[in-house]
Amino acid sequence: MTVREQTTTGADALMRKSQAGAEVHALNVALARKMRRRGEESRFWWLVPTIYIIFLMLPIYWLINMSFKTNQEILGAFSLWPQDPTLRNYMVIFTDPSWYKGYINSIIYVVMNTVISVTVALPAAYAFSRYRFLGDKHLFFWLLTNRMAPPAVFALPFFQLYSAFGLIDTHIAVALAHCLFNVPLAVWILEGFMSGVPKEIDETAYIDGYSFPRFFVKIFTPLIASGIGVAAFFCFMFSWVELLIARTLTTTDAKPIAAIMTRTVSASGLDWGVLAAAGVLTIIPGALVIWFVRNYIAKGFALGRV
Amino acid sequence: MDKTWNNKAWFMVLPVLLLVAFSALIPLMTVVNYSVQDTFGSNEFFWAGTAWYEEVLESDRFWNSMGRNLLFSAIILGIEIPLGIFIALNMPRKGWGVPVCLVLMALPLLIPWNVVGTIWQVFGRIDIGLLGYTLSALGLDYNYVSDPFDAWVTVIVMDVWHWTSLVVLLCYAGLVSIPDAYYQAAKIDGASRWAIFRYIQLPKMNRVLLIAVLLRFMDSFMIYTEPFVVTGGGPGNTTTFLSIDLVKLAIGEFNLGEAAAMSIVYFLIVLLLSWVFYTVMTSYDAER
């Protein structure tokens, strides 16, 4: 029996019973008792989320904890918080160009990628959400396959392709390579948001004499501003978290912070404090902007399909 | 929404097409090219036909990586999906708890993947990590560097830590779309907690759950960075998943032909999975 059926039969039963006042009273009491019990149950609603969040935060806390310790303290005494907090690890990163340049490199190619991805995705998403055209479904599917393609498959050919163009170790190379998965992502997210805007708005604007570019910039873009923000955020994020392709395409001048970190692990394997501080600094951009996309985060991860 | 037929829309798609063609089609052609040729160095190539494919499909190494990867995907799906549903059901629906939960839970999703690896590499170490230290202090023989089982546990717990929130957020997005009237009706009927879940919440979460399963399966099928940073594929080859093996083959051993053939096989599998994903999604979109 489905819920809807259950509900209607329940309502019928209720009506039949309402003819007898005493029974209604009994039912109300039962209902109230049931609701009270639910209320008691929900008094512990915070328990599960809290335990889960503690599980999530512990490893991050440990990283932050380590970033404020000296190496002697990390390797020597085991302590739950820094006994002698130090900013030395952060000073190393902010004063050593080979460290802080990594952040600058990452930010440069990530921003380039975000701008390129969203710019080319906007008209395409509009086309997908408003028109049917020859091969549209195949094209949409093909875009999806690129989002799902394992980066490992592309690592070597990317290296050779960009070598041929002399683009190895440039920011634009990484930015273009990351378009592989970010452009499809941006198209899917934007298409989701655009399909939420009624088509009548377009038609009215055209009747009012707006040309397509003017309509798109003046009327349509403000309507999907939040969608553009979300798409940009997800492009930024997926480019920021990717390591394999970025590492393959760079050697020194455009090396991202992620690659610099892995180098430190393998080469010395000792400077845990600096490694932890570098890790903490890579979490900060995501932690800062997450507030603005909190309501769209599921939609973004699900390629705009929630 | 009924869409107008307009082939001029191709012009709007053109930039995307060119860009993705440049960063996907050309590299893919290179791979195809390598997969059917053999080389003795110094840029001399010989037609090798399907020899590389036969070698890949007959090699134990490929099937072992594949088996490990499938096992890994199965385990993390088996943990993350039920756990994600459970947590989503227990999340607050209104009040100050909602944004706090959303933001804190989403945090692991936004951490660079290699930093996720670093976090767990440090966290699990028996000398300096909270987890490893606590486990050894409790008398457990835990060491992910030398023990294959511990390495697997570490990689799985790491993935659960990293990605369960995705399932939670998707399920939560499905749950909040259920109108209050449904719950009130169930209350009047005196439906049990299980009945509410089975007949109201689960059907409403169907769609998002499907997305979650498919996304998690595909992403775990091509996982590279996190286990690579934590274990480097070791001890031995016990945590060498498909992507790690492929990179080892292509860049570590520079075995171009075999790596290329393996890439193509790998890519075809992903293509098939994407097709399933796409078919499922579009049929759902059509229903909507």
Automatic annotation (TrEMBL), chain B:
<keyword id="KW-1133">Transmembrane helix</keyword>
<dbReference type="GO" id="GO:0005886">
    <property type="term" value="C:plasma membrane"/>
</dbReference>
<protein>
    <submittedName>
        <fullName>Sugar ABC transporter permease</fullName>
    </submittedName>
</protein>
<feature type="transmembrane region" description="Helical">
    <location>
        <begin position="122"/>
        <end position="140"/>
    </location>
</feature>
<feature type="transmembrane region" description="Helical">
    <location>
        <begin position="208"/>
        <end position="225"/>
    </location>
</feature>
<feature type="transmembrane region" description="Helical">
    <location>
        <begin position="12"/>
        <end position="36"/>
    </location>
</feature>
<feature type="transmembrane region" description="Helical">
    <location>
        <begin position="160"/>
        <end position="183"/>
    </location>
</feature>
<dbReference type="InterPro" id="IPR035906">
    <property type="entry name" value="MetI-like_sf"/>
</dbReference>
<dbReference type="GO" id="GO:0055085">
    <property type="term" value="P:transmembrane transport"/>
</dbReference>
<dbReference type="InterPro" id="IPR000515">
    <property type="entry name" value="MetI-like"/>
</dbReference>
<keyword id="KW-0472">Membrane</keyword>
<dbReference type="InterPro" id="IPR052730">
    <property type="entry name" value="Sugar_ABC_transporter"/>
</dbReference>
<keyword id="KW-0812">Transmembrane</keyword>
<dbReference type="Pfam" id="PF00528">
    <property type="entry name" value="BPD_transp_1"/>
</dbReference>
<feature type="domain" description="ABC transmembrane type-1">
    <location>
        <begin position="66"/>
        <end position="277"/>
    </location>
</feature>
<feature type="transmembrane region" description="Helical">
    <location>
        <begin position="70"/>
        <end position="89"/>
    </location>
</feature>
<feature type="transmembrane region" description="Helical">
    <location>
        <begin position="95"/>
        <end position="115"/>
    </location>
</feature>
<comment type="similarity">
    <text>Belongs to the binding-protein-dependent transport system permease family.</text>
</comment>
<keyword id="KW-0813">Transport</keyword>
<feature type="transmembrane region" description="Helical">
    <location>
        <begin position="259"/>
        <end position="280"/>
    </location>
</feature>
